[in-house]
Amino acid sequence: MVRGVRRVVSRCRDFTAEALADWGWIPAGSEAGEERVEDVLLLVSEVVTNACLHAGGPEEFVLRRGREGVRVEVADASSEPPRPHAPRSPALPGGHGLMVLDRLAGAWGYEVRGPGAAGKVVWLEVSLPSRP
């Protein structure tokens, strides 16, 4: 359970980095594996930051390891779906989170939370790093 916005992004990133290391996502001598880990950490930062900015912070953060990769889930209390901002210059800060998800995640989306829980879950999936 994750509540609030204070240091939540760094806590979720740290948790993710530890889990990926435990799961062997950082093969010795593999830059590709390290780059994929950085992709996952950036994606975690994006979805957790969006929950902070648009929904009062995440309520739950879940990592699921699968045979093909990892799934990240961030639950929040807002029922508003993620919406892209109007196109803007990449040189301007902010408003690029969903573009980052589109480019780095294998798949992503959102689901309305089940009975008894208000809000939604934003999820993303990232494939395993390729082995040399």
UniProtKB/TrEMBL annotation:
Short name of one Pfam family: HATPase_c_2
Chain intervals for the UniProt region annotation (Disordered): 75-95
GO molecular function: ATP binding; protein serine/threonine kinase activity
Keyword terms of this UniProt record: ATP-binding, Kinase, Nucleotide-binding, Serine/threonine-protein kinase, Transferase
Domain of life of the organism encoding this protein: Bacteria
Residue ranges occupied by any Histidine kinase/HSP90-like ATPase domain in the UniProt entry: 28-124
Protein name (database record): ATP-binding protein
Organism encoding this protein: Streptomyces cinereoruber
